[in-house]
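# step 3/5: fold
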Amino acid sequence: MTGGSTEAYGAWTPPRERVCEHALTWIKPSFLWMMYRCGWGTKEGQETVLAVEINRDGFEWALTNACLSAYARGTHADRATWQRQLKRAPARVQWDPERDLQLQPRPYRSLQLGLSGEASGRYADEWTIAIRDVTPLAHEIHALVRAGELDAATRLLPEERPYPVEDELLAHLRE
């Protein structure tokens, strides 16, 4: 993350003849969580791993307009209210356990951001600053992990810091 942007990761799948209009585009600001999801870029349909730099305004718009992907007592008035919010929201958030180099769960969670409709279009057309193929990096780190060279693998990881955000921006997204 730089002052005006943040980096997210996604596995790219070549276009299909038909794409479900209700599908979500998931972005993951955690490199190791993405490696867990795509199996270090080895899972079928997820062989290409991209780092997508998006502007901060877009990322925060998505957070502001997001709904939790699961009902959370205390965050939502009731289940029916949550379902209505989820149906209308152009983005959804889920919190999944962060991963270590062995892709084992860590004791804290990372945000996953699902985009649809307006948010998906804005992500593609307005928010994206740069896209880099990090598949070779994923493979290199994975090879070091398999060889037991965890210190060397750690040195190659992209730098990640907690995202600086005001509490009120995430208040509606707490589990």
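# step 4/5: annotate
The first helix runs from residue 31 to 38.
# step 5/5: archive (pending)
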